[in-house]
């Protein structure tokens, strides 16, 4: 890959990771303000919103970028500009239509999750917060095509910066809005949560302002490219959007996978728990832990590993296109090994330290710790699904993403209620694990069939990674046991100390083993040696 492409990929990955990182840590003060009841209301609104926004925008930046890059490569710059101009109008219309659909569907969606007749007033609350978040749909699709246009010109900075600014503005409004409503104005929890979800619209305005600034700055360069247009291709708007649609569908499916799994829980969890004799309030408490509190923490190890692994996918695409089998095997080996090396110990470490982690981020809660302990390993599946789906796009087999996702969703839908009845909250987690596992197996089978890739090296290295992870796990467990003899995981500060010391001990052992065995060198190359020199390590 060229240095410009590598730099662009790094900038975009960094922006995405910082955005996700900020989106994780705001939950600490937010939970302190609104509590469990507030987070469950927040989640009722955000899951359907995420599905809508994913359908409206998930594939747009990537597909627009791919389309514009294709025609820029042959100096047909006017084709990309035509897409941009018509796309702005189309996305504005799409955004308004999406907003109207979600706004009007809010009472129906609320009725689907609040099935207990004793909680009719609660149904109105859910309707209010869903309608509050729906306004963001007006602006986000419009932003997505602007980001795609910049990315198509290999200008990743506007997307990265706008994502970070959008997240900062959103979080500031979430926390300020909830604080002012609850602490200053002594208003209702529903009003506070409504302000918090409306923050998605305010954050969108912040991101749009950044994109507009970059457009003013870069427009002379884009206009100069237009003057060099070869004018040999005149593609119709209909053909443009036919091509865009084919590009975007796989991205949309990958984008809505996790929200769809969450939405199945949202529709089935409470009614199933109530049918088993649980009070509706208790069912909601468990649902909030499952779909908001625990899920937010599970994404921690997934974000870094997935972001790093996905930076290798462009190289996979290049090797496959050039029919470089040796290069393709090397890139796939590195992608799977890096993913496993980073995600497996992080997921198991989070599971081991579930109780103090939950206390640090939220409050002491036996059910919360139990659910997080069971849910944390599923992070490995989230990361593996995202990467295998991206590889399918890289080897031009993206249509199989549709098959794998549909099968995975069908399994989740079929097993969720029976497993919840059998295992309560852990049943929903197991149904998610089974759905994702089957989807991943289908993706791996297609990767093997299309790329003629053999998993032998990954399997052998995977065994080594599992051994190192097991050693790390037992060392961390010993340290955890010793610390809990005089520190309590139910006290925030003491829980934070436990997490910090255990994380340092576990990570230190794990990376020492990786360095000593040279596994880290195989995975990350020359960068490891330069880091060792700076730290003066002689391992």
TrEMBL record:
Which top-rank group of organisms is this from? Bacteria
Arranged from A to Z, the UniProt key words for this protein are: Cell membrane, Membrane, Transmembrane, Transmembrane helix
- Sorted alphabetically, which InterPro entries does this protein's record hold? PG_synth_SpoVB (IPR024923), Poly_Biosynth_Transport (IPR050833), Polysacc_synth (IPR002797)
The membrane-topology field of this record reads: Multi-pass membrane protein
Where found, per UniProt?
Cell membrane
Major place of localization? membrane
- Cellular component, GO, one term: plasma membrane
TM stretches of this protein: 12-34, 46-68, 88-109, 129-150, 171-189, 195-216, 244-264, 297-317, 338-354, 374-395, 402-422, 428-450, 462-483, 495-513
Pfam families on file: Polysacc_synt
PANTHER family of this UniProt entry? LIPID II FLIPPASE MURJ, PST FAMILY PREDICTED COLANIC ACID TRANSPORTER
What protein does this entry describe? Transporter
This chain's source organism reads: Robertmurraya siralis
């Amino acid at each position: 890959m060229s240095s410009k492409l590598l730099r662009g990929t790094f900038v975009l990955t960094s922006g995405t990771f910082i955005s996700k990182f900020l989106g994780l840590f705001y939950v600490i003060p937010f939970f302190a303000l609104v509590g469990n009841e507030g987070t469950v209301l927040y989640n009722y609104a955000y899951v359907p919103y995420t599905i809508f926004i994913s359908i409206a925008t998930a594939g747009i930046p990537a597909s627009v970028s791919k389309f514009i890059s294709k025609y820029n490569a042959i100096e047909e710059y006017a084709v990309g500009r035509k897409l941009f101009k018509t796309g702005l109008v189309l996305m504005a219309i799409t955004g308004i239509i999406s907003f109207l659909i979600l706004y009007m569907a809010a009472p129906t969606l609320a009725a689907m999750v609040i099935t207990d007749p004793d909680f009719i007033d609660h149904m109105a609350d859910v309707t209010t917060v869903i309608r509050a978040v729906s306004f963001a749909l007006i602006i986000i699709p419009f932003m997505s095509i602007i980001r795609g246009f910049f990315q198509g010109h290999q200008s990743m900075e506007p997307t990265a910066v706008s994502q970070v600014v959008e997240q900062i503005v959103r979080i500031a409004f979430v926390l300020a809005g909830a604080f002012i409503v609850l602490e200053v104005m002594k208003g209702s929890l529903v009003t506070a949560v409504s302000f918090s979800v409306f923050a998605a619209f305010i954050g969108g305005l912040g991101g749009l302002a950044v994109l507009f600034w970059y457009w003013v700055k870069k427009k002379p360069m884009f206009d100069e490219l237009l003057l060099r247009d070869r004018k040999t291709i005149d593609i119709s708007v209909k053909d443009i959007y036919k091509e865009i649609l084919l590009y975007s569908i796989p991205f949309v499916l990958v984008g809505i996978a996790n929200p769809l799994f969450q939405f199945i829980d949202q529709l089935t969890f409470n009614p199933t728990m109530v049918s088993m004799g649980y009070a509706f309030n208790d069912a909601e408490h468990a649902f909030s832990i499952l779909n908001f509190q625990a899920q937010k923490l599970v994404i921690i190890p997934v974000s870094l590993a997935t972001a790093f692994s996905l930076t290798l996918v462009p190289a996979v695409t290049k090797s496959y296109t050039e029919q470089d089998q040796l290069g393709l095997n090397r890139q796939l080996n590195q992608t799977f090994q890096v993913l496993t090396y980073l995600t497996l110990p992080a997921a198991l470490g989070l599971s081991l330290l579930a109780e103090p982690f939950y206390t640090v981020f939220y409050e002491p809660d036996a059910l919360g710790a139990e659910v997080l302990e069971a849910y944390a390993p599923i992070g490995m599946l989230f990361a593996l699904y995202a990467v295998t789906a991206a590889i399918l796009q890289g080897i031009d087999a993206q249509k199989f993403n549709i098959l794998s996702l549909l099968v995975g969703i069908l399994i989740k839908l079929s097993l969720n209620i029976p497993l919840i009845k059998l295992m309560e909250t852990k049943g929903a987690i197991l149904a998610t694990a089974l759905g994702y596992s089957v989807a991943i197996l289908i993706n791996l089978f297609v990767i093997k069939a299309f790329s003629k890739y053999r998993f032998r090296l990954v399997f052998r290295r995977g065994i080594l990674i599992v051994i190192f992870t097991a050693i790390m796990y037992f060392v961390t467990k010993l340290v955890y046991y010793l610390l809990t003899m005089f520190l309590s995981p139910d006290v925030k500060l003491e829980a934070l100390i436990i997490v910090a010391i255990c994380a340092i001990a576990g990570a230190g052992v794990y990376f020492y083993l990786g360095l000593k065995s040279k596994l880290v060198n195989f995975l990350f190359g020359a960068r490891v040696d330069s880091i060792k020199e700076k730290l003066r390590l002689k391992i």
